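re: the backbone from monday

yeah here it is again, tokenized this time
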């Protein structure tokens, strides 16, 4: 479906992503995890053509993304960043309607079929009663659902999400992740997202990719990837990983930082007076 082939990215002479190859199959939910500064968001942005590759390329359906028009890319994928901004006077319905733009010529207005798609996206995300509300008046979870509704109206094959649960409380985090999973399962939309919470990555991913220092450390199912050894090696913390008897999913319990990490922090921390 979408593939990063030997991708390398540099900022100011510093390598952020180093020779990463990653394939995402149609219908998968793939989560990218790793410590802060490991290149997760950069990789996602390169795969959505928001930033160029220094080396390598990204392909969608076998076609190099750089050879496709912006309109065609928008028909194939939608990228939602951590912080999305709208004009102060934009309503939820107007935001969702923007998802139809990649399917229209510049001079065309929305027709009846477009409005049907918008209505469907609002209904699918539980926002029908919010359609006249200003986006700026919504809670964090409601606003995130509004942006996902816009993505649904776009009718992409691939949905990319950069930390979709950032700034949300626990209840709204689960609400958004349940919505993402239902979109994937019921509509067949491929999902690639960056997550920080390992338990959420375990529960909502078919496959997990681990980045550290701009390199792809490991990829596989949650049970293959989320081991105490890998968590210790990548994050510098001691963790217990258990299997939930009720649903068979993993539960990650973080206990403490490793002695090596703690010692390094003490050496680099400023003195307290």
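seq for it, each position gets an aa:
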């Amino acid at each position: 479906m979408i593939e990063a082939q030997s991708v390398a990215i540099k900022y100011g002479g510093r390598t952020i992503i180093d020779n990463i190859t990653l394939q995402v199959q149609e219908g998968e939910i793939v989560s990218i995890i790793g410590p802060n500064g490991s290149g997760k968001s950069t990789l996602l942005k390169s795969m959505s053509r928001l930033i160029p590759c220094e080396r390598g390329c990204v392909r969608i359906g076998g076609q190099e993304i750089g050879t496709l028009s912006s309109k065609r890319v928008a028909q194939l994928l939608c990228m939602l960043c951590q912080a999305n901004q709208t004009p102060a006077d934009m309503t939820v319905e107007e935001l969702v309607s923007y998802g139809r733009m990649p399917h229209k010529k510049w001079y065309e207005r929305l027709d009846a079929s477009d409005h049907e798609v918008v209505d469907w996206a609002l209904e699918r995300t539980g926002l029908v009663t919010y359609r006249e509300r200003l986006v700026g008046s919504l809670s964090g979870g409601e606003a995130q659902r509004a942006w996902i509704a816009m993505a649904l109206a776009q009718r992409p094959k691939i949905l990319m999400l950069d930390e979709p649960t950032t700034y949300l409380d626990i209840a709204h985090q689960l609400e958004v992740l349940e919505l993402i999973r239902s979109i994937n399962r019921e509509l067949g939309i491929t999902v690639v997202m960056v997550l920080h919470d390992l338990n959420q990555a375990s529960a909502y991913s078919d496959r997990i990719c681990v980045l550290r220092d701009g390199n792809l450390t490991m990829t596989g199912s949650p049970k293959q990837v989320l081991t105490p050894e890998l968590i210790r090696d990548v994050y510098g913390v001691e963790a217990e990983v258990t299997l939930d008897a009720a649903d068979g999913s993993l539960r990650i319990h973080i206990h403490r930082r490793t002695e090596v990490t703690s010692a390094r922090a003490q050496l680099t921390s400023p003195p307290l007076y």
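The longest helix spans residues 170-187. The first strand starts at residue 2 and ends at 11.
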